[in-house]
Amino acid sequence: MKYLDVDGIGKVSRIGLGTWQFGSREWGYGDRYASGAAGDIVQRALGLGVTLFDTAEVYGLGKSERILGEALGDRRDKVAVASKIFPVAPLPAVVKQRAQASARRLQLDRIPLYQVHQPNPVVPDSVIMPGMRELLDSGKIGAAGVSNYSLTRWRKADAALGRPVISNQVHFSLAHPGALDDLVPFAERENRVVIAYSPLAQGLLGGKYGVDNRPGGVRAVNPLFGTENLRRIEPLLQTLRTVAAEVNAKPAQVALAWLISLPGVVAIPGASSVEQLEFNVAAADIELPAQSREALTKAARAFRPTSTRQFLTDTVREKLSRR
Ligand SMILES: NC(=O)c1ccc[n+]([C@@H]2O[C@H](COP(=O)([O-])OP(=O)(O)OC[C@H]3O[C@@H](n4cnc5c(N)ncnc54)[C@H](OP(=O)(O)O)[C@@H]3O)[C@@H](O)[C@H]2O)c1
């Protein structure tokens, strides 16, 4: 495993574990996953040196935090647990109360990284950040982060906090490489962290899905799994397969290795099994040749998905034609 040393948090593994899947209906993994596999995945992750575990108060309406806190056992206060507040009415008293509720579900006294889940479109960061600052000053959180923030808004959040907002968790993968343009250079320059979510494009970069084999649940409404996008992404998947064969790895591992080859970037893939977790962790040890990294970046930039509107129109048309 490779690590970043992050102010206020400590050792952060470049491959973490995303736990939206834990106890959430959206993924359709069911009760057996929530009460069995999820805990096994966390245990194995700990054993393999993973220190970053990402959750949120909204995942399974608190279930993800509870399952994660329980599964971490007595290691829970020794790793970098990251949770998120959904910023509805984020006045300081609300922020403090919600952080306390998350900490209780996680069985922690202090949350190492506490993130604002989304930029609130109507409430500026000058409202939410004083609450985050109080949490930092009282030691209830180790560091403050944001999620889904543009670079402009990240800087505004810095100003509102009165100190650096250490991380920004964003949608970032070979299939969604926009963070390369501004967030990654900023993180490198300012010694911040970009946390890549959906780093496997919700499993699409694992290479097993296609027009005749699409996942359900939340992924049924992910435009990337639409017919036209599955066609458009094929050259990128082909590049991924070629590089995977060169370095003797799986496509999903190459997708993760590409992300963490970038300065200041860590990835938090979710996993539906212990085996997937093991493959994902092993991606930290893959050194991609410069030429392969460039080929992947070029293929990522060349992928142009259809608009969400086009995806919805196509999906309705396909459903009607099947009647
Ligand atoms: N801040 C935000 O707004 C936000 C938004 C989304 C996610 N997140 C966080 O980011 C985490 C990860 O994102 P995500 O779960 O959306 O997507 P992801 O990590 O890209 O995809 C996870 C899914 O990919 C498949 N997979 C995992 N490892 C694989 C492997 N080695 N080979 C093939 N397939 C593999 C599994 O699904 P199957 O086996 O079922 O195919 C797994 O559930 C979440 O758990 C959450 O913590 C944050």
Number of β-strand runs: 10
> What oligomeric state do these chains adopt?
single chain
Shape: globular
Q: What is the terminal-to-terminal distance? A: 50 Å
Category from helices, strands and their pairing: alpha/beta
Distinct ligand kinds: NADP nicotinamide-adenine-dinucleotide phosphate
Low-confidence runs (pLDDT<50, min 5 residues)? none
Explained architecture:
The chain is α/β, with parallel strands linked by helices. The chain has one domain: TIM Barrel. Helix content is 44%, strand content 14%. The protein has twelve helices and ten strands. An eight-stranded parallel beta sheet has the order 3-4-5-6-7-8-9-10. It has a two-stranded antiparallel ribbon with strand order 1-2. Helix 5 links the parallel strand 7 and strand 8. Helix 3 crosses helix 4 and helix 8 packs across helix 9. The chain is globular and about 55 Å long. The termini are far apart. The structure holds NADP nicotinamide-adenine-dinucleotide phosphate. The site of NADP nicotinamide-adenine-dinucleotide phosphate has 27 residues, from helix 10. NADP nicotinamide-adenine-dinucleotide phosphate (NAP) binds next to helix 10.
Write the layout of secondary structure elements.
Layout: E1 3-6, E2 10-13, E3 17-18, H1 30-47, E4 52-54, H2 63-72, E5 80-85, H3 92-106, E6 111-116, H4 125-137, E7 141-147, H5 151-161, E8 167-171, H6 183-190, E9 193-197, H7 227-232, H8 234-247, H9 251-260, E10 265-267, H10 274-282, H11 290-302, H12 308-321
Parallel strand pairs: 3-4, 4-5, 5-6, 6-7, 7-8, 8-9, 9-10
Antiparallel strand pairs: 1-2
The structure holds NADP nicotinamide-adenine-dinucleotide phosphate.
NADP nicotinamide-adenine-dinucleotide phosphate (NAP) is lined by residues 18-21, 54, 117, 147-148, 169, 197-203, 206, 215, 252, 268-272, 276, 279-280.
